[in-house]
Amino acid sequence: MAAFASREYRALLSAYTISMAGDQFARVALSVLIFERTGSAALTALTYALTFLPDLVGGPLLSGLADRRPRRTVMITADVLRAVLVAVMALPGVGFPVIAALLVVVQLAGAPANAARGALLPQILGGDDYPAGQAGLSSAGQAAQVAGFAGGGALIVAIGTGGVLLADAATFAASAALVLLGIRHRDAAATTEAKRSWGSDLLAGARLVATTPRLRALIAYACISGIYIAGEALAAPYAAELGGGPTLVGLLFAGFAAGAVAGMLLLARLSAPTQLRLLPLLAVCSCLPLVLCLLDPPAPVVVLLFVLSGVASGYQVTASTTFMRNVPDDRRGQAFGLAVTALKVAQGVGVGLAGVIAEGLTPHGTVALAGVVGVLAAVGVGLLWRSASAVPSTRPTPAPG
User: What is the pLDDT of residues 186-234, one digit of tens each?
Assistant: First the structure.
């Protein structure tokens, strides 16, 4: 892939992959820790939801920093802050309320960093290599999730939950170093006039998304992940229902991520028009395998169903690149933040609802119910996409570095 010829792209890819793997170690650790302490599927899912819900605030209010400040600086600052906060979470004796509060702040810090990364990638690669570069970045992130989730259970056994959290802090520090050494400084993308009012910048980004049918439809596709994520949200109680322990929890997490890697790599080999034509079908198929959990299959089959769901979810990289290519460079950070806000809120609400429903229903029944709801929602979004695709749109050319 031509994108790998860029030193900056390699640095960005490495930083993202390392920190992503550490995050998955921490997610497994927190899921196991909370479920062991409380035995509650609802509190376990709530803890997982805390990794998504802060974006309700951070996405709109903080992502604009990626346009108003140098994007490299935003990423480094956020990584250093998160390294410190996660290290504090690992200290002995820190209670659940403090861990939850720190987790919220960690997620808030991630909002401008993610927006900066998403907006910087088109600058680094330019228009021709950007889609392949985004596919590579997303695939590497999913591969890191596979490694992080699959190895998370074993790592907890080896070094404990505190050790896993320290490992996550170290990945943030490493990410900051890679960005500092591997990516050159660029001035802020927004003009001086745009910097005068944070509020007007936020409103302009929101107006752009709200008045562009294609952007709205692409965000709706992204939000379907808030439904099929139910399997991940209930990984710990589902594993317990299946008679497994931390290792099975990690495998359930990893099954979806492994499938997503395969799906992204397969889609990357197809032309852009073909990828766009497949969006409606893949969105439906990302939820359809979960319906079979209603039959209460054994653990290996459940992992396979999660893998199949992940393969179809590879359509998310097509939705992401199409979204970013339809947004001007000086609005990309803010628009990206608004899109991620919708995505994360959908995921957070979906995770929370899955936990609440699982308190009165079995984990496998809850996952199957999510599959049914997801299929119906995907069909509806497909109709929205067809309508939006009939509206002519102007696609800005990504600015070169």
Answer: 888 765 444 445 666 667 777 877 778 888 899 999 999 999 988 888 8
No. of helices (H) and no. of strands (E), the chain: 19, 0
**What is the C-alpha separation between 232 and 351, in angstroms, rounded?**
8
In a domain, 394, yes or no: no
CATH number at residue 369: 1.20.1250.20
Number of domains in the chain: 1
Tell the burial category of 100 from Cβ atoms under 10 Å away from its Cβ (0-12, 13-18, 19+): middle
Alpha-helix runs per DSSP H in 183-244: 192-195, 198-210, 213-223, 225-228, 230-233, 235-241
Report the phi/psi class of residue 235: left, alpha or beta, with left for phi > 0 and alpha for psi in -120 to 50. Answer: alpha
Domain span at 39: 2-183+205-389
Chain segment 68-87, per-residue pLDDT in tens: 889 899 999 999 999 999 89
Burial grade of 195 (CB within 10 A; 0-12, 13-18, 19 or more): middle
Tens digit of each residue's pLDDT (9 = 90 or more) over 112-136: 888 888 888 888 887 667 777 777 7
Per-residue pLDDT, averaged over 29-48, amounts to 72
From 322, 323, 343, select the one nearest 223 (Cα to Cα): 343
Contacts of 113 (CB under 8 A, 6+ apart): 74, 75, 78, 79
